[in-house]
Design brief:
The complex is a heterodimer of chains A (154) and B (468). Chain A is an alpha+beta fold and 154 residues long. Helix content of chain A is 38%, strand content 23%. With 468 residues, chain B is an all-alpha fold. The chains are: A alpha+beta (154), B mainly alpha (468).
């Protein structure tokens, strides 16, 4: 038996197993999917994607702040910061910075805070000295506060 | 909505049909792959028309103007090539009826699942991952700015907004093409032109496989590729990784057809190969890595015979070279730089990082690849291992045949990725898991074709060869 015959046999088994597994995997995928939710409206799709922060999305979208200005978002839940980053692309040209965590003691109207926070547009983290900025509160929800960014630096 | 969708999808197909006719390729050249080639050629042409339009003061919402140009270009290409002879299909294969039925069912299943994946992906808007943060956001900036103007430049100057500013433009241009037809930034339908590449890949890969290996093996390989989770993910979304891999496969398949043909037929396939390379280069920066790898694989065996390096056929490589020039020129105009090439923004250049990090990064990368990719069935269905095994078991025959160039190209591409990750300015523990799996799978379609070709060429003919 030549090397070619042996390799052919091994390859045939390999392809048969691979192909068989593929049939199983594709069949499972096909049986699990449906077209029902395809009829959802765009608003339903967006609400489904954003989840419980849909109210925040609506607040930012409805805000009368000019598109060129930055809005500032504070949240006490670090795990949801990525969801807020995702909202940036949906809301374009609206832009805002999502704050990962905000200490309870932070009072933006008097610009006092304890500790440091990370401010994320989306992408690399950068430190933002919140003692040096001023904000105007625009909206408040159970998990978020939305501020208008007035100036940076004193 | 239906009319707008029809224009978004059908007009590029019309342009693609005209472009293929100008190349000398008709539906009868390969009835399975032709529609896939149509979409690639048409999407590239549509992207070019949109790109040029965005430099003018004309409204980005003047979709009828864009349509007129696309139709005119398609018609002109068709008439320009009407006297050119078209390539005939390969001679029909003498395969058993059950094998041909099996292959047909596999193609039908892959097409159906790809369509279903596109529908499933469109259940949610484009709002996360690279499809949102790189590709579609760049399209939104272009569209909202009204084109390539000072407003666009100012919007892109914000370093926290669009990442990878230097990435090629085809993907966002197709999204802008969609926005223009709907008169606004859309959040779902702009995925469709990109999802069409997954469907096109299914057709082109099927057509490529059945040429080189018996139908049962072609069916198994086709199904294995489309069962890979990353292929499924790319089929649902508007990422560009599948586009790069598809371009490489298209060029590889066209090159094989070129080598098997003669005269005008061979020239037609060579022209299609150039289109595939151009598409690959315009999809994502990794396309340039593959192009360098292919060039290296072409040059290396010919170093002892430098006269073979220059042939008249190379003039068609001006097409992919033109895409490189266009991308580099655009990036230079706006000052867009690559985050890897400029190295660590704080201290070191890429070459310096490559040297200083090699000792720690190379073993880590090789170990990570071994632990997470090479032996992971879900990564690439063990296709890379199969390719490595065949190349190592039959080295002389691989080296002395048409298997050599693509094998070397893949090896050089993997070496290129090793160099990229070794010199990365990012934390390797973050960069590898977020990028390595995805980018390494770009070469899977081409690897699948290579395995099929090798099986048919290296092993006993009765086992895998496509009989004529």
């Amino acid at each position: 038996m030549t090397k070619g015959t042996i390799v052919a046999g091994v390859l045939a088994v390999f392809l048969a197993l691979n192909g068989g597994y593929a049939v199983f995997a594709l069949a499972r995928e096909a049986s699990g999917a449906g077209f029902g939710s395809f009829r959802a409206t765009l608003e339903q799709r967006v609400a489904g994607a954003i989840g419980p922060d849909f109210a925040l999305y609506e607040a930012v979208r409805a805000s009368t702040v000019p598109e060129s200005e930055f809005l500032f978002l504070g949240t006490r839940d670090a795990e949801t910061s990525l969801a807020y980053n995702n909202m940036v692309t949906l809301l374009y040209p609206r832009r805002f910075h999502a704050v990962e965590t905000v200490p309870e003691s932070w009072d933006p109207e008097s610009a006092r805070f304890d500790g440091r926070v990370h401010a994320i547009a989306f992408g690399p983290y950068r430190d933002l000295d919140l003692a040096a900025v001023r904000f105007e509160l625009l909206a408040e929800g159970p998990r978020f506060k939305l501020w208008r960014f007035l100036e940076e630096g004193r | 909505m239906i009319l707008e969708l029809a224009r978004v999808l059908l007009l590029p197909l019309f342009l693609g049909a005209g472009a293929l006719r100008a190349l000398g390729i008709a539906p009868r050249s390969d009835r399975l792959a032709w529609l896939g080639w149509c979409w690639v050629a048409g999407a590239c042409g549509t992207g070019l028309v949109t790109f040029l339009w965005l430099w003018t003061p004309l409204s980005v919402n003047a979709a009828w103007g864009l349509d007129l140009l696309v139709v005119a270009l398609g018609a002109w290409l068709f008439f320009a090539g009407r006297d050119r002879p078209t390539v005939d299909a390969d001679a029909p294969k003498d395969a058993a009826f059950w094998e041909r039925v099996l292959f047909g069912l596999a193609v039908a299943a892959v097409v159906a699942i790809t369509v279903q994946r596109a529908a499933a992906g469109n259940v949610e808007p484009v709002f996360r991952n690279d499809e949102a943060h790189f590709w579609t956001l760049k399209a939104k900036v272009i569209y909202h700015s009204g084109g390539f103007n000072p407003t666009f430049a100012e919007a892109m100057s914000n370093e926290h907004f669009v990442y990878h500013k230097d990435y090629p433009l085809l993907n966002p241009l197709l999204a802008v093409w969609t926005f223009a037809h709907f008169g606004e930034i859309t959040h779902v339908v702009n995925r469709l032109p990109i999802q069409m590449f997954a469907l096109s890949l299914a057709l082109v890969l099927a057509g490529a496989l059945r040429r080189v290996v018996r139908p049962a093996a072609a069916a198994a390989i086709l199904l294995a590729v489309f069962a890979i989770p990353e292929i499924a993910f790319q089929s649902r979304t508007a990422h560009a990784d599948l586009m790069v891999g598809f371009g490489a496969l298209l060029a590889f398949d066209a090159w094989l057809r070129h080598r098997a043909a003669s005269g005008e037929d061979a020239r037609a396939w060579w022209r299609l190969c150039a289109v595939g390379l151009a598409f690959m280069l315009w999809s994502k920066n990794e396309g340039l890595l593959y192009a360098v790898a292919i060039a290296g694989a072409w040059v290396l065996p010919r170093l002892a015979r430098p006269r073979e390096l220059i042939t008249p056929r190379l003039k068609w490589m001006l097409l992919p070279a033109g895409v490189i020039a266009l991308s580099w020129g655009f990036n230079a105009w706006y000052g867009f730089e690559n985050d890897i090439a400029v190295g660590d923004t704080r201290e070191h250049s890429y070459p310096m990082l490559l040297v200083t990090q090699a000792r720690t990064h190379v073993p880590y990368i090789l170990g990570w690849v071994n632990d997470n990719l090479l032996w992971n069935a879900k990564h690439a269905a063990f296709l890379p291992l199969a390719m490595i095994a065949l190349a190592l078991l039959f080295p002389r025959r691989v080296w002395s045949s048409q298997l050599r160039l693509p094998c070397l190209a893949v090896a050089f591409a993997w070496l290129g990725y090793l160099l990229v990750f070794t010199g990365t300015p990012h934390e390797l523990e973050w960069h590898l898991p977020t990028a390595a799996s995805r980018v390494s799978q770009q070469s899977v379609p081409a690897m699948a074709l290579w395995i099929a070709l090798a099986a048919g060429a290296l092993l006993p003919a009765r086992a895998f060869a496509a009989r004529r």
